[in-house]
Each structure stands twice: as structure tokens, then as C-alpha cells.
Fold this sequence. Notes:
The structure is a single chain. This protein has a 6-stranded antiparallel sheet with strand order 1-2-3-4-5-6. The longest helix has 9 residues, at 83-91. Helix content is 15%, strand content 33%. By secondary structure, it is an alpha+beta fold.
Amino acid sequence: MTNDKIIHDPFGCDHCWPGEAESAWSATRKLVRDTELIDESHFRILIVKCNQCAQRFVSVFTEMIDWENGNDPQAWVLLPITDAETASLIQNRDSISEYEIEALGKGRKSLLRNFPRDAESPYTLWGRGIFVGPHD
């Protein structure tokens, strides 16, 4: 279940934010860690950056423990952010809330990757904005 629809926007470059969702997910491996906002074992929020165009993204990882079968569902979302949003996140990183993360980029194109509990493989698609999923 992959949504390959191309959504054009003014963020990123072909290196970090290509038009096809699976290609964009592959490109995330080339992004470098800029700032760690939250780092827990099942919940992580980072600011990552493209070395080619300097575009920054907020990256959110969530995971729920599957106590019965050990097949922990996981989700990732990546949203390009502005310089002002980057500065605000870094300045407030010690008190950042999930609500503040979800308020970023309302309607802005985001990249979603989900690996549900009973799925054989993850799927990737374009979305809008950020939803911080359930996590332990």
C-alpha cells in the first residue's frame, strides 16, 4: 500500500525530497542528525538536515510494545521545517510537547512510513502535517 502520487512543494531538493514517496524514504538515510529534541526508546524526535540544500526536517519515530507477539508496530513521519520553526524547536527543546510538534506545518507535505503490527512489510506514503502516534 504505497501512495506514489507526486506532490510538489517549495521544500528540499531532489537529493532529500524527491517526488516519489519510496524514493523520499530512501533519501532519509542521507540526512544527517542536526538536533536531538526527544530520545526515548520508543519515542524519538530529531531535527535532521540535507547536506546538499541545508533543508531541515523534523523526524518523529513512535513505537508501541506488542507484549503478546513481540511484533512492535512502528511509525515514522518526516516534515520539512522553516528556519524559524527550527530555531523555535531548538530554543524550546527542553519543554517541547507533542501538541507543539503536531502544530508544525499544518497542510504541509510530509512523508509517512508505517509498519503495522500484523504487516509483512512497512508502507510509505505522502501525507500532510504531523500526527504523533501512540508510543510507549
